[in-house]
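Lab notebook, bench 4. Continuing the backlog of folding jobs that were queued last week. Each job is logged with the same field layout so the records can be merged later without manual cleanup. Today's entry covers Glutamate dehydrogenase, a 421-residue chain. Filled in by technician R.K.

JOB TYPE: sequence-to-structure
TARGET: Glutamate dehydrogenase
LENGTH: 421
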Amino acid sequence: MNTAIYSGPVFEMAKQQFAQVADHLDIREMDRDRLLYPKRAMAVSCPIHRDDGRIEVYQGYRVQHHLTLGPTKGGTRFAPSVDIGEIAALAIWMSWKCALAGLPYGGAKGGITVDPYKLSPRELEALSRRHMQEMIPFVGPHTDVMAPDMGTNEQVMAWFMDTYSMYQGQTINEIVTGKPISAGGTLGRREATGRGVAYLVGRALEHLGIRADRATAIVQGFGNVGSVTAYSLAKRGVRIIGVSDHTAAYYDPAGLDVAELQRHVGKHGQLAGVSAESLISASELLVRKCDVLVPAAIERVITSGNASKVKCRILAEGANGPTTPEADAILYQRTDEIFVLPDILCNAGGVIVSYFEWVQDLQRLFWEETEVFDRLYRILERSFQQTIARAKHERISHRMAAMAIGVNVVQAAKRTRGLFP
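JOB STATUS: finished
OUTPUT FIELD FOLLOWS
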């Protein structure tokens, strides 16, 4: 199969991870390409009028990994680094994540190569609407359901939904998730990923016999996922001793005031400027001693260069793909020291509650917040138990166990449905 369209370090990482789990599961060579490579990949040009009168064209992408279990599901990110290889890798990971959680979805991902912080509000709306307009032939409530990701938010999802609805001639809330409540969103969606991370950290602490009120945590990335994770862990009694974003990193063994950090970010949009006393380099923060380390920013931050230096007891992957395969091999040798909550388990709260939002929109029947989180925690608990049990039974890493469960689900569905025509 000619796979030249997919390249780059993030895609190679997803490909390497799949090869390892395929070897473990003894998947036939003839079946591997069908399981790994995406069903569809779209590239679109998105021209908009800039405020200064210029017309500028931005490149947009959408990858749908498989539709075997139901529609595809995945976020849309606006970031300068976006390329088709990165988007494909994220779609593949989303497939295993949905399968592990038992959701009737295949994985998808989309994005535009742009720095959204360099766009005016009017330009951001124009680009968002144009992207959805270009995607209309390829998406739908039963084909591909979009969601927010890095650089996008509830407002962007509302523009997506409105644009799609205008072309259909009726309101189609279920075309996207992560919308404002006023546009058919669900209670709890914004906090879902972070609260899910905190729940699983709590379960890992219990599993290891560590009291939450005596534990410390460092959170790398203080966006939506990281900030909610830090706040939720602090509510459980965990002392937050380090945080960072792309502008600054802070470390204080006595503990940081998470509520004050959130207020500062809410006002200024970044951590920079909080304090001059507890500043630390971002790379140093990742290897400071703590009970819980939460990489919640971007891919490939735990590498072969720092994996042996990490000094946490629990590595909770709030981001997608924060640990490279080379680093994973090092961490596996440190299994007795470091308890890994792999990304497809740890950050699944967002897509699980997105699924709840989609179900509520389809039924036009909405749940109370307590019901949303009760259902979320039950699914996460089941996935946690299955992952830990399989890792122990087969003497494999938690990542391998989680991926094996996800790949097995998709493989079984493809085998049952057969190959058309």
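OBSERVATION: The first helix runs from residue 9 to 25.
SIGNED: R.K.
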